[in-house]
Amino acid sequence: MKVGGQAIIEGVLMMGKKVAIAVRDKEGKIVTESLGKIKRTKFLKIPFLRGFFSLYYSLYYGLKALDRSAEISSGEEMKKSDTFFSILIALALGIGVFVLVPVWLTGLVGVKNNEFLFSLVDGFIRLVFFLLYVWIIAFMKDVKRVFQYHGAEHKTIHAYENNEELTPENVQKYSTIHPRCGTNFVMIFLIVAILLFSLFGIWKPLTGLQRVLIRIIFIPVIASLSYELLKIFDKFPFLRFLAFPGLLLQKLTTAEPDLSQLEVAIASLKFALEDEDENTNKDVDENPVEFMG
Predict the structure, then answer these.
(1) What element of type H or E holds 166?
(2) How far apart are CA 71 and CA 62, in angstroms?
(3) DSSP E strands, 220-261
(4) How far is the C-alpha of 123 from the C-alpha of 193, rounded, in Å?
(5) Could you tell me the residue range of the domain that residue 33 belongs to?
(6) What is the helix (H) or strand (E) element at residue 75, kind and residue range?
(7) What number of other Cβ atoms are within 10 A of residue 204's Cβ?
(8) pTM of the model
(9) How many domains would you assign to the chain?
(10) Proportion of the chain above pLDDT 70, given as a percent
């Protein structure tokens, strides 16, 4: 079966038979916990709809795992109000920096009546902002450790997909780059957004307000399209050259983990697969959410 995963604070989340996390606590011990199981519904099998639901589950369990990993690694309980306000602020900043500001700057440079050109410039500005953001946070010590766990997650999944015995030494030899990574998804999303937004305004130029609303309202649509492309690139390796920008960007969002971090990723994956029949064919797609953070 295919598995998905995400890097969290001092640990890794894995989605297999169940959603599991493994985190190192203050004493250095690996703590494993189950966050539940993803309900298998027909929506998770319908193309385009499945992307929306897969992303929802990834975000839901990802945020839940981040909170829990912060508690385990620090030994302090998180307040729900702190989490709520953090999400609210992140959403506001995301819309401001990646929607409002690019639209405003594009209009400022004089691009107004050509919607394709507007989308191209707007998308380029958005891409530059994203790359700068990732590059800047990569220098932060805590973020760098998350990127190392991100690399550990990818290496462990690679080893599992290659039927390798899951030991830190075996897993270490694999790449930190994976075609199903969320970084890959973001790059595909940014490119698809440029193409889709350029279709609006064919009949007449859009106003600034219309452009902003379209860029917010159509986020789920673009996400669903991008998810399908991500699955296609993963299924057909000869097409992966089309996703090269996303694969290259993973050089920023992943880092080489040490053996202790690989131990955590392995513990998480093994716990996520604990209920799996040993004779189960790993090529059978039993996990409805294989998206990787």
Answers:
(1) none
(2) 14
(3) none
(4) 7
(5) 4-272
(6) none
(7) 8
(8) 0.87
(9) 1
(10) 93
